[in-house]
Amino acid sequence: MLGDLHHYWSGAFLAANAFIGLNLVGALLLGMLVGYERSYNGRAAGMRTYGLVCMASTALTVFVGHASLWYGGTAAHLQADPTRVVQGVVTGVGFLCAGVIMKDGLNISGLTTAASIWAASAIGVLLGVGFYAAALLLALLCTLSMSMLHRLEGLLPGRSTMDVTLTFRPGNPPSFEELSGIAEAHGYRVLRNSLSITFADSRPVWRFSVVALDRARATLPAALAEEIASTEGVAGFTIAPVRN
After folding, report:
1. Within the chain, how many helices (H) and strands (E) appear?
2. Residue 52 binned pLDDT confidence (cut-offs 50, 70, 90)
3. What's the total number of domains in the chain?
4. 211 in the same domain as 167
5. What pTM value is reported for the model?
6. Cα–Cα distance, 202 to 13 (Å, whole number)
7. Which among 46, 173, 182, 194 has a CA at the least distance from the CA of 106?
8. Could you give the angle at the alpha carbon of 137 between the alpha carbons of 136 and 140, nearest 5°?
9. Residue 92 has pLDDT above 70, yes or no
10. What is d(CA 32, CA 222) in angstroms, rounded to the nearest whole number?
11. Fewer CB within 10 A of the terminal residue: the chain, N end or C end?
12. Are the CB atoms for 93 and 116 separated by under 8 Å?
């Protein structure tokens, strides 16, 4: 066993370690590049998370290409299958992505972060198998899509959804048709199948969603809130945009 230690200091073995090291440094930098956009916007996963995911994916992929040097060159007969390694990377990162997706009522947050973490692992895999230009392009496209497409999406015609919670005073609350009429007057349509009714502190609480038929023409949520506040029987309310 002691005689096999010289393999670990051979020129080919040291060159392979240097090559893997350069790949890890590059993966860390590209992962940090993608993660900076998330960090800049105050998300939970930032440069460190993305850098680690990308670098680990690279490490688990690039070493497969040096199977002849495994265990000091004593396992050259082993047959490595890179696709099985990639499958394991994607599966493992999937669990990490699931951890950043949060659901609060109708609001779902973390989808973009989860998708970009998964993309960071793909960047690491591309680096690991030697497609450096493709990995760099993927990192740039991920960064641009997260920073620019959100603005473009806001300029295009579309609909926006808001979550409305109304707390009524004890007694008879306003009719659902009356509330629907108030929403339609401001350019919103009430989603009837989203209505849920609870009873807390002797007060009925209604929760439902409204959709702006054209977000460019719909009034601001503040105007809708002002009219809801003046509606007889309403003791309190919450209006929050539904984010995905």
Report:
1. 8, 6
2. confident
3. 2
4. yes
5. 0.62
6. 75
7. 194
8. 90
9. yes
10. 39
11. N
12. no
